[in-house]
Design goal:
Number of helices: 0
Low-confidence stretches: 1-18, 191-202
Radius of gyration: 16 Å
Mean pLDDT: 85
Number of domains: 1
Strand content: 35-45%
Largest sheet: 4 strands, antiparallel
CATH topology: Neuraminidase
Structural class: mainly beta
Bound molecules: calcium ion
CATH architecture: 6 Propeller
Strand order of the largest sheet: 3-4-5-6
Shape: globular
Number of strands: 15
Order of helices and strands: EEEEEEEEEEEEEEE
Length: about 200
């Protein structure tokens, strides 16, 4: 086990193969039809589904630093979503209307801290939503996409916070000495019946 990029919570520890080569797989909810989607020798991990299940966004180190990539649910059309700015990006969450992806980013210089960023699902208009000097990470869109929950260490230990999806009104939901991690807001009610898909990382 190792801590993911020095992320400030051991809840994010993950298994890494000896050669560091994580990959993204999918399988049916009954555990059958396990399919490898990524074959790149770099690390591929931290995926999130698009709301219609047609695509995945995931983190890959294939470009040298952890950046976000998208691919079809079958693993085709793998292409970068972020990159080229020296940031280390992970823990993406796809908005329920399909238009945006929230993620956390740190610039790999000692003393820097994580921020929550949002980017169009087509790679347009990346914007830093948090500018606090504490760590801000693990974003999750609300069901109506108007708010984003995330974790912040700005009161000295980790707390769950919420903000408007365009950054204003950042306020804590918890204030205690315990370690809060990885919020996940209640998803919208299922709009259709049919196929059920699961995803896992190794
Ligand atoms: Ca890989
Ligand atoms: Ca920050
Ligand atoms: Ca706390």
């Amino acid at each position: 086990m190792r801590s993911l990029h020095g992320h400030p919570t051991d809840r994010r520890s993950r298994r890494v193969e000896p050669n560091g080569n994580d990959d993204v797989f999918v399988m049916l909810i009954d555990g059958t039809e396990v399919t490898l989607l990524t074959t790149n020798p770099a690390g591929d991990y931290d995926h999130a589904w698009s709301p219609d299940g047609s695509k995945l966004v995931f983190t890959s180190t294939r470009g040298g630093t952890p950046d976000l990539y998208t691919m079809s649910a079958a693993g085709s059309s793998q292409q970068p979503l972020t990159g080229g700015v020296g940031g280390e990006d992970d823990l993406p969450d796809w908005s329920h209307d399909g238009t945006a992806i929230a993620f956390d980013r740190i610039f790999g210089t000692t003393g820097n801290d994580y921020e929550i960023w949002r980017i169009g699902a087509d790679g347009s208009n990346p914007v830093d939503l948090t500018t606090d000097p504490a760590h801000d990470y693990a974003p999750s869109f609300s069901a109506d996409d108007t708010k984003i929950a995330f974790v912040s260490t700005r009161d000295g230990d980790s707390e769950i916070m919420v903000m408007n999806a365009d950054a204003p009104n950042q306020s804590p939901l918890t204030t205690n000495g315990s370690t809060e991690a990885d919020p996940d807001l209640v998803p919208p009610a299922p709009a259709q019946s049919g196929g059920v898909r699961g995803g896992f990382r190794w």
